Every structure is written in structure tokens, then in C-alpha cells.
Amino acid sequence: MTFKMKTDIKLAGVGGQGILSIATVIGEAATTAGLYLKQAEVHGMSQRGGDVQSDLRLSTEPIHSDLIPLGGADLILSMEPMEALRYLPYLGPDGAVVTSSRPFVNIPNYPDEKALLEELDALPKVTRMDIDQVAKGLLAPRSANMVLLGMAARHLSILGPDDLRTAIRTVFGRKGDKVVEDNLKAFEAGYEGLQ
Amino acid sequence: MRASPLRDFWVGEGGLKEVSFEEFCFVAGNEYICVVISTNRRMKMKKMLLGDEAIALGALHAGLSGVYAYPGTPSTEITEFIQNDLLARERGVRSRWCTNEKTAMEAALGMSFAGKRALVCMKHVGMNVCADAFVNAGITGVKGGLVVVAADDPSMHSSQNEQDSRFYGKFALVPILEPSDQQECYDMMADAFRLSEEVRLPVLLRIVTRLAHSRAAVEVGEPGPQNALAPDGERTRWVLLPGNAKRQYASLIAQQHGLLERAEQSPYNVLKKGKGLGVIACGIAHNYVQEALPEGISLLKVSQYPLPAEKVRELAAVSDRILVVEDGQPFAEEQVRGLLGPGYPVSGRLDEALPRTGELTPDCVAKALGVPGGKVHAPAHNLAPRPPQLCQGCGHRDVYTALNQVLADYPTARVFGDIGCYTLGALPPFKAIDSCVDMGASITMAKGAADAGIHPAVAVIGDSTFTHSGMTSLLDAVNDNAAITVILSDNLTTAMTGGQDSAGTHKFEAICLALGVEREHLHVVVPLPKNMEEITRIIREELDYKGVSVIIPQRECMQTLARKQRQKRMAAEGDFSTSSK
């Protein structure tokens, strides 16, 4: 007798920040673990510096809808703090928010940063970190998204951190050892919560 | 990525690794492949595929000989998959981008005439462009299987309307398939080609954005053979002179009963009887209904049309009311209302049990089914919209900067835009265009406005949109000597959809001259801040000219440029593992 587990993840960010690479790694880990998976992506017009999101659903049972219902997400995983807030209505009652704390300001009416972070911190389960800073500190500036994935690993009960480490090796393996090492380092920094 | 049988296992270029006693997985690029070896040693292969990719692979495995398409979100990835597929290359499957959806449809019909299987792919509005060929292909009929994929975009994620392509299928009196998930996308292709050849009609396969661009595991089979060359000998079918056309149309009408009978018997149309509420779920709507899982209802899943009327009546007989759940417009709902008459309670989009506009969501479907939702967070306060914008360094930016600078001195000027990245010029900071309607409309609308007395009348059109539908517009303008200034902003690619080849690259001057644009009113400039003085001077001179002028700002798209540099770098580092799906 196995019991049913599911994790619904709302991935968010700004076009070009690399949220689909996070989805690819989680997807690889989930496939290897034999989980069911559906991943609704965003292509086309919204990729040009606008807000982007992807619904990633993992389950031990077959998944029907490609989209996560309102109040259904177990995790909002965002490369940008305001983009994390955008999907708040999708966050489930016990859901967690894991986000970069550094605003990406490419619009003139970006909200007040202090007020934004206060609103974020008022949520029951929030982990935020300046992932760009961390990645830069590791001399792996292009691996900020893997820092975020490391932070998320603490909230992904359906997958263990080792599943994700293996998936990072598989997904980035063809880009060479250096890229794999950078991404693993970034993942560990996020996982350990190293500022 | 291609797997080849090796003893009992399959191996691919990405390598093989053990997962458990019965399962092996390997990965190549963005693609996950899982091979399950079952106890009876029959091999099944699972791949993580977008709906679009499942359609592409299904078509290839069904013995496709050619795909004909113009890029358009959310359909683009179908053709791209085939272009990068090794089996397609080995078999010489024709896959280059076409100039527009009409040329695509006609070429596919030609391949079908020759007896081979052809696929046409487009976004929903592309159906408008190819409608002449599509509807008349219903009259001629086909020889080799011909499947037309229309990818609808309810909620207009990347489109200017949310028209429902199923109406085109009904209009042309041809069978329609509407897959509900990625597995059906794959499975239906073989059935669609077989159906097309059996009934000798084009088959329309309709998907929506959320299926096209969502990934799931798909169990795939083995590639089947391609058709041999076997041209159709029946001239009277294909020469649609009125005498022949009347006969063909009568036979198409006579076929309708048979098509309905096939839909009634189709394994894709499944009726599960319960009591109380009866639900008709079309295509992807089936997933949202399953997600809400209301207990005890009757459910009719519809994935093949004509609408199975007998099954609808059967559902009505065991239900006390019917809810029609379909993405797009109330296509099935109107027919159901007609079938059951005014006395039978039917709801759906028409009575706003479901929203009249926008795509279906698990939430609106659950609500319509009466399934209560949980508590939902209020939207955040510190939130601002983040619309898409032109990339930093994009040549279109310099074009709009120059245009705005000059037009500040021409308060009566109007700028007619077109479809592509440069439509973003409508948004701040540029706010540079007054219209965007359909592919090619910039030039012809500018001409009509000039005819009416607007001056200056400026058209802004991209290179790929120009060859898609702007060349005939320009010929009209030249023939009328219309006082318009056309800015043909050439970034050497079809950028908005991800950088596909553009049909007219390096040919634009020749095309404009051949259409009759005068040499002295045709200019090529490089849109860079350092050239601003030259560009604004030329725009100013041409606005004052009372005839057709064409200015071609020409500079490669930043995205495709960066991609080429990346590929060069990777090649230099000896990495050849890209695009080996």
C-alpha cells in the first residue's frame, strides 16, 4: 500500500531568468523517481522581459489538469520577489514561498521595495535570499537559479535532495564538469541557506 | 535523440543508466526518456513531450512525408521538432518553414495529391489565411492522408483573438479531432491520417495553448512506413469547375452521415453514465472535469466530431440537466441546445455558467460543477503589471526612436503597425503605433487611410510579416501611387516566435523594386543610435514624398545573434550534442 503524495509548484520569474532550467531539473528528478509529472510552460510573447510562470505538478497518481487550481500550490518558487507575490492566490493554506529577495526592476512603476519585502515576510512560510549575490560569491553567477532550487529542496517532500543532485548532474552533464560543479555548489549553498 | 534496439535494451546517444530492475532511463538535452521493460519483454518507451511535440512524433511515426507551416504561437514547436528529428532527416521529411499558412496548406494538398501523408500546422488565426485552400480541400478531397493542426489560443496569451477553429472544420464539413492530453496528441495522429485516407478528406486536429505547451510522459510506439508515390488519377475530383464542384460537393454532403457514424463509434468519444448532472467535456476540458471529480455525474468525453448526437441524446436521457464544458467558443453547446430543444436545461458558456471569454481553468470548471473551492489568498498589494518589452539593443527600438523623433513635427501622422515583436512599440516608452490588426494590414491600412486623406500615413512591418502577407499590399499601394511611407523593419528572422528562418531574408530590396517601388524612394539603413541623424533625415524626406517609399532598417535580432554566438562557442569547445532529439 503506497499512499498518495503530490507537490504542485508555481514557478515564477521574469522572461530570461531561467525558470525553465529549474523545471527541467525537477522534471528529470521526478521522471527518474517514477513520479507522474505535468508541466505547463509559457512560450511566445510573454518571454520578452515580461512576467513568466510555469505550473509544475508532481504526483504519485495520474495528474489530470495541466494547470494548478487557485489555493492549490504547495510551493511558489520565484526568481524575483514581486513575481512571487503575483501568484499568491494560487498558494495553498500550508504552502511555502521560496524566492529571490532581489527585485528585478524593468518597469517604471515597480512597488516600494521595503513594503514589498514586508508583505512577503508577513506570509506564514517564506524563505528568501539574494540568490544572485550568493551565486556571485561562489563565482558561479549563472547558477542563481540552482541556489533557488537548493532552497526549494527543503520543501519538496516528494523528492529528496539526492534526487535533485543527480538530476543536476544529468541535465548539465553535457555542458561539461565545470558547469555541473558550479550548479551543484550553488544548489548546496541554497540548501544550507548560506548567505 | 533516437533509440535503437540492441538485444533486449534500448540505448540512446545520451547513455543508459540503471534505475531499477525493470526500468532504464536516459536523458538527452531537454528530453527525458524512460524505457520500461515489462515482464513479457515487450518494450514500451515513454518520453516527456509537449503536446506539440507529441503531435510531431505521432505524425512522424504515422509515416509523414512533409510538414508545411508558418510559425505561430502555440503551434511552432510541432514543426521545430520535426526539423530537428533524426528519423525525419533520414527519411527526408520535408520541413522548411513556408511563407504563409496558405502556401503551406496548398503545398500539403499537392503532397496529398501525390499520394503521400502531409501535415499542416498553424495557430488559429492562420486558419483565416489558409481558409480558401482548406475549405476547397474539403471539396476536392485528398489522396494521401492530410492532417491540419490548428492551435487555438483562448485567453489570447500571444494572439489578437480567441476564435475557435472547430467552426472551420464544421464549415468545411470535414472530421475534427480534439485531443484531451499529450498521450492522445500522439495516438491521434496515426488515427487522423488513417481516417483522412479512408474518408478521403482533410482532417482538422484542434488543440489549445495549455495542451500545446504542457509537458507530460507519453508512451510512444514504432515508426510506420511512409506512403509510396501514387498520384491521384481522378481529374474530375481535382478540377473544381462548377460541373465537377457540384458533383464533389454533393458527395461531400452525402458523406456526412458516415462521418457522424464514425464519431458515434469513436473510441475517443466515451460516455460514462451516472445520474443527476450530465457533463459534456470537449478535448482538454475533460482534464479539468476529472480534476474536480464530482461524484456520480454522467460524463460524455468528446474528442471527435461531428458531435456524436446519439451519444448526446443518450446522456440527456439519464441526466436531468447538461453542462457543456469546452475551451474556446460555445461550439458544441450551441449544437447541444439545438439537438435537445428549448425544453431541456443546458448550460455552459452561453448562460455564463462558465465565463464567456478566456480559457478554461480548473477553478471555473469546478465552480460550474458545483464543487466548492477552498480558501484563497487575496491578491498581493505590492504588485505591478510587467508587460513584455523589446529587448535591450533591439533594432526595432532605434526604429521607433527615430520615427517618434520625426513624427513629433507631424501631428497629423498616423502609424499603422503589424504583427511581430515590433507590435510592442504600442506600449510605453514608445507608444508609436495606432493599429495592429492582422498579418500585412499595416501597408494596406496605411494605403486606405492615405486614400482617405491622412498624411503622413506610415506603415511599420517586419520582414517575415512582409513576405507572409505584405507584398500584395505593397503592389496595391504602388499601383495606386499611394502617399505612404513603409518601414520594413528587417531583423533577418521571425523573431516573435523564437527566431525561425524568414522567407525573404536578403531579398527585400529586389522584392520592393520588382513590385515597382522607385529606386530613389527605397533605402536600406542600419538601425543604431550612431546612425540616428541619417535615419531621421531619410524618414523626413520620404514623409514629404507623395508616393510609395520603403525604408528598410536592417540589423540582426539580438536573440538570434546571441544564439549563433553561443552555438559557435559550443562548437569551438567541441560540444556537438545540441539538437539531437
Q: What is the straight-line distance between the termini of chain B?
A: 4 Å
What's the CATH C level of the domain at 6-102 and 124-129 and 155-175 in chain A?
A: Alpha Beta
Secondary structure class of chain A reads: alpha/beta
For the secondary structure, the number of strands of chain A is 6
> In DSSP terms, counting alpha (H) and pi (I) runs of 4 or more, how many helices of chain B?
20
How many domain regions of chain B?
Answer: 4
Mean pLDDT of chain B: 92
Strand count, sense and barrel status of the largest sheet of chain A are: 6 strands, mixed
* Percent helix of chain B: 25-40%
Number of strands of chain B: 23
Query: Helix and strand string of chain A, N-terminal first?
Result: EHEEEHEHEHHHH
**What is the strand content of chain B?**
15-25%
> What's the shape of chain A?
globular
- Order of neighbouring strands in the sheet with most strands of chain B: 7-8-9-11-10-16
> In terms of per-residue confidence, which ranges of chain A show pLDDT below 50 for 5 or more consecutive residues?
none
Q: In one word, what is the shape of chain B? A: globular
